[in-house]
Amino acid sequence: MGEARAEGAVEASEIAYRYGDRIALDSLSLRVAEGAIYGVLGPNGCGKSTLFRLLATISPMQQGRVTLFGDDLEGDPSAIRRHLGVVFQNPAIDPKLTVLENLLCHGALYGMSRGEARDRAGRWLQRFGLGDRSHSRCQSLSGGMQRRVELAKGMMHQPRLLLMDEPTSGLDPAARLEFWETIESLRAQESVTVLMTTHFLDEAERCDRLLLVDQGKEVAEGTPAELRSDLGDAVLRVRCHGVQQAEAFRKQLLERLECKIEQSADQLLIDRLDAEVDWRGWLDEFPQQVRELSWARPTLEDLFLRKTGRSLAGDPASLPTDRPGTSRRRQGGTRA
Amino acid sequence: MSGQMVAGWRGAVALAVREWIRFFRQPSRVIGALGQPVLLWLLLGVGLGRSFQGAGGIGFSEYYLAGTIALILLFTAIFTTISIIEDRKAGFLQGVLAAPVPRWAIAAGKILGGGAIAWVQALLFVLLAAVLGPLEIGSLSLSLIAFLALAAIAITALGMLFAWPMDSTQGFHAIMNLVLLPMWLLSGALFPIPGLNPDATWGETLFHWAMRVNPMSYVVAGIRQHLDPAMEATGWIPGPMVCWMAMAGFALGLSALAAGMVSKQPKGRR
């Protein structure tokens, strides 16, 4: 992790949130050091968007306490909001307005005079390579450009904390990479603290620290390297011919070996496997079950699977039973 | 004015400007809000022209002119406030809610922006009617322009009150059909407000009171008095002063209610 100072930019303790009977956050605590890029990683419906909405002061606090740069989140809302740059998952720019019109409107909402807003908008658009597009309507821009407009909007009032909710979802890989370069340069040059939610592993790997969340609870916390090392140096992944074959093979292995085996759809994950075990022969030994074997460095996905028994990607097609697939993607406003 | 006030109005004006730009960049909305009332006016004017005799010898087209203007105000107000629901869905509103601008400014921006659009649409129609004939140029006055502005604010604030709590445009359409259009029907736009005579039927008495408490009645009566001050009274008609006071009261009261509703914090700690 980088040169973070001792003071916490965000300190949340024991926050809980529920929508009616459904628990979205369950006594979650976190601490984000100033100047860090902090990621909250979890499958859809894990509560990360609820956390985001609480920190963005859009949802009211129900339980627990949060401070931002030492100020209580429930204090004077307009003072708190001035410190926050917020980038939503759903586009918050008006597609019918031009890029500049959007930023001028944003500036006015943050109390800037028109002249000041115009100056700052011009500077940020230049910086994000949008200088020549300021009079284009936002609906005519590519997805990546629209995201950069959102980012310019979020940074225009010089916030100390940039909050982003899955900012790169819907972007192609090239646009995502570009977005990340922008974020890293922002952190370096503007000394802004970044807190973002994501369900992309490659994105999580780029964060200084990560909080893994599942069903509103903390699963693990640490730097990406620390988290991965939890599983040892390498893991064995076994891809089977189907979900049932995987189940059967898992039972078979457990009878023979002393180890932990997690299953995700047609895949088995085996960590801390005894070096004596000759898994290379399995392909020939169990041709009915095993399709593919791979020996690899553990990923965050593996860690998540190991700790929760669930896949991070949460593809509902692969495991139809025992997962809250139906309540995952809720309507836009109240996504958890 | 305090800093908070200045910041609030700055935000409100920016939101109103945005509303304005958005509206005129969607020509279908302009045509919908202006076209349908005009079409109704033409169709009803021709269709009902001969069978109508209620308002002191004037034709239905003349009688219905005030109602058409009120309908243009209502439709435009509906179209602009319905965008609140779209904003909520698209995410624009989230961005506004995360900004330090005071909440009342969000209501003020919507009402100012939507009201200004409705006002201009109504003025366009008045001008059109004056150029094409049915309206005498002499009846255009600053007083009419001011009254229309007040009415536009009141009706937009009313639309805002219905639109803010909604999470679907379908819900708003139901409100429009069940509440807003009947309000217009019972405003004296199509038929005069029945008087309270000793021989009035219970239905007429019911209509009388329903129409008398209806804000739209004062919009229609106020516009009609401006267009044709000499028009003979049929049934019950509020006087010009009453119309002005009612309109000012509704504009202020409904706007304050809307601002209060937007400012209400969602339930928090439990």
Summarize the structure in words.
- The complex is a heterodimer of chains A (336) and B (270).
- With 336 residues, chain A is an alpha/beta fold.
- Helix content of chain A is 32%, strand content 26%.
- Chain A folds into two domains: 10-83 and 159-227, P-loop containing nucleotide triphosphate hydrolases (Rossmann fold, 3-Layer(aba) Sandwich), CATH 3.40.50; 230-335.
- In chain A, helix 3 (99-109) crosses helix 4.
- The model of chain A is unreliable at 1-5 and 315-336 (pLDDT under 50).
- Helices cover 73% and strands 0% of the residues of chain B.
- Chain B contains ten helices and no strands.
- Chain B has helices spanning 3-24, 27-48, 60-90, 92-97, 103-132, 142-163, 169-185, 202-212, 215-227, 240-263.
- In chain B, helix 1 (3-24) crosses helix 5 (103-132) and helix 5 (103-132) crosses helix 6 (142-163).
- The radius of gyration of chain B is 19 Å and the shape is globular.
- The interface between A and B is large, with 42 and 34 residues.
